[in-house]
Amino acid sequence: MALPSPTEICWAMRSAPLEQSFRPVLRAAVESKWPETRKFAAALLGDDSLAPEMTEVAIERTVKYLAGHSPLGVEETGVVFFRFYQKEVRRRRAASTKYSLRGTASELASAVSASPLSTVEHRLDLETTLRFTRPDLRVALLLRYGSNESWSVVAEKTGTTKDAIRKSCQRELNRIRKRLRADLSRGATQREQ
Q1: CA-based nearest residue to 15, from 76, 59, 80
Q2: Domain 117-192, what architecture?
Q3: Helices in the chain by DSSP H: which ranges?
Q4: Which of 30, 140, 166, 192 has the most beta carbons within 10 angstroms of its beta carbon?
Q5: Phi and psi, residue 116, nearest 5°
């Protein structure tokens, strides 16, 4: 199924209280950014099938922005539009990566109860996952996610600020995710051969 063109998506502008002079500028900006929006969605979400829907959201937000500011050119409007588009893509990506637990607490307890052998396996998995992580970040990650300590306690024990350790841990988790994805894809390729 072919995706709608940016002109078809620009219907969101019709109901907005905009001056007539803004409409052609916004339409030209959306059309100029359309290939970039599709690439951005495909890169972050895996495909560009939601690009039209996210474009509509970005158009609506751009319309609200333009209503409160002085007239902009096509290029500046494109920058504003694409900024709103990127935020929407990232919001949807974050929403799709959240975990959901299904079942009851008793089912979870029985699934988590581990034999000594699985405890050893978990420890080995953890060591393998964190082998490239700096020691200070390893401690911070284990305090936060292993012991469920608050960010302020983690910051106090590592001797940094709460925001700094949170950002460092987030960057390290992103690096770990990338490594795990690369390992999974490498393993799948080897199994296919």
Answers
A1: 59
A2: Orthogonal Bundle (1.10)
A3: 6-9, 22-45, 51-67, 74-96, 105-112, 116-129, 135-141, 151-158, 162-192
A4: 30
A5: -55, -35
